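Why predict the complex rather than its parts? Because the way molecules touch one another can change local conformation, and only a joint prediction can capture that. The input here totals 460 residues.
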Amino acid sequence: MNRVTPQTPLDEVLSLFERDGYVLMENALTRAQVAELSRAYDEQLALHPPKDGALRVEVPRILERDRHFEQLMDHPPVFRVAHAVLGYDIELASSGELDHKLARTPAYITWHSDFQWMTNVACPRPNFWVRCTYFIGDVTPDGGPFTLLPGSHRWDYPCPQDEPGQGPRHIDGQIGITGPAGSCLINNTEIWHTNSPNHSDQPRRLIMLLYKHAWMKQWQEGYQTTPEFAARQTDPLRRQLCGLYTWHQEADRFPAQDWPLNSR
Amino acid sequence: MAEHAAGIPEFLDLLEHRPLLDRLRALFGDELQLLSYDLLYQGPNSQSPPYAWHRDFVFPGDEPLAVNAIVYLDDMTEERGPTTVVPGTHRGVALPPRDKTHEPLPGQVKAYARAGDAVLINSAIWHSGGCNRTGEERRAIYAYFGYWWLKRDNQHADIPPQALENANEARLRLLGLQAPVAGDMWMYDPQEGRIA
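Output of the joint prediction:
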């Protein structure tokens, strides 16, 4: 597994990311940050209890619900990787999600890539989205880890579908991404991915952020950043991330152009 | 020049002009969207630089995600400053060299179009408008098209209400006001043709 840390040279991180489509950054969050985020996470769970029979709790627009989550949008150790991959025209693709997979539950989604609907653009496609998944608790092998197939983002054919109702099949070479709380999985969403059953007695606790190029629309249907959230941002970079720069006319004035990739 | 040319009836009609629209649909199918629509105008004896190289955005690959369609209203002679491109540059991620923004580039090709012609270019290619050194006007209509999942060029600007009067579904799609699929676009199942 491609394990890196905030101290790993950026070139090395990018090389792994380009080859395999992902890296796991351990210690992306400090213990104190994990503790703060964990408290905020539990507050959200209290507001959004699981429904009867649910496999998970999903809370969209999580960045907008607590300032501790909001700070993740440009959290330097992780953001510098997303920025370096996508370029200065980086924006949020959504307002983030809390993804809480309950204990003792089967997989809730099968193998896919996030752009398999894009049938008019052949594989391999440009890197449209980068997902940054923060581990708010330990993710163990039997705890329903995010599962992916390294290198599949570069293949020239789309992800085959699983049989309906069968759950995700085993694919040789698949990796369940496990790591301690405070880690962050950074991946190209073109990589073939799924989740796996949570056989443990503990829920799997994640916060997911998505980044995209400024020229793409955001993820709609309740996941997009609200105008109110964007309007309250005062930092130029965060305003850019919320889509407040018109990409064509203002491409030369994106604040992210001045964001120092290698000094953080 | 114009904020959005679709507010003017003659230009609105041009958007649905079959010789143009059919070729764009051949590239983008029903996922075609108008990203911007403007008029390009230079008066006589312009003093602007001969070149202003740029690419509209960077995405490597042979398949265009967006296309500039330029319809000329005047003959693009050498003196009127034809649109110029550097073939093949759409396949890389490099920007045109900043120190040569206003200079001719190796391999460049000029589009000596006549009035009534249209030039379609992959917007990822290095391209430049020209400088009008004639005593007459230089006029063109500039329409920018791409997939429905791209943002409009100025996503904060309203579509002119004239373009929406009696608009059918095809026009609403073209203007980016209606997606080719309903519901959550990221859960679209292309085999089923519906949201999973």
